[in-house]
Design a protein that fits this description.
The protein is of the alpha+beta class and about 120 residues long. Helices cover about 30% and strands about 35% of the residues. It is built from 4 helices and 6 strands, in the order ααααββββββ. It has a 4-stranded antiparallel β-sheet, with no helix packed on it. The chain has a two-stranded antiparallel ribbon with strand order 2-3. A hairpin with a 2-residue loop joins β2 and β3.
Length: about 120
């Protein structure tokens, strides 16, 4: 028990006196919403939101775009569907952003652009 307390105090002292030693292990971990060009290239149309989240993590922003109402007339009557695309935005290196558009939970379009 005394050894555990002593070890805990040593680790606490290291964290207070030399925080860079404690946080160094997280240096390669990107901030939420940050992705690399390599991660962007792994995207494919038709991927589900869950598949994208598992590869990229959470975006920095999610925006619901203007909804469209589609009415289809079939042999047994008409069907109305409301489609609300969702835009996910990620930050990339060197001022680039990635915009991913999902329709009905599937990746429909993705583009990257450089901010002016």
């Amino acid at each position: 028990m005394r050894r555990m307390i002593a070890a805990s105090l040593v680790l606490l002292a290291i964290g207070v006196l030399r925080p860079e030693l404690v946080t160094a292990q997280y240096a390669d971990t990107p901030e939420p919403g940050q992705i690399t060009f390599e991660q962007f290239r792994m995207l494919n149309r038709g991927m589900t939101e869950g598949q994208v989240l598992s590869k990229l993590g959470n975006p920095i922003a999610r925006t619901t775009l203007t909804c469209n109402v589609e009415t289809n007339k079939g042999p047994d009557g008409s069907t109305t569907t409301v489609v609300c695309p969702v835009l996910w935005t990620y930050a990339m290196p060197e001022g680039w952003t990635a915009d991913l558009t999902f329709i009905a939970g599937r990746l429909a379009e993705f583009n990257n652009s450089k901010r002016p």
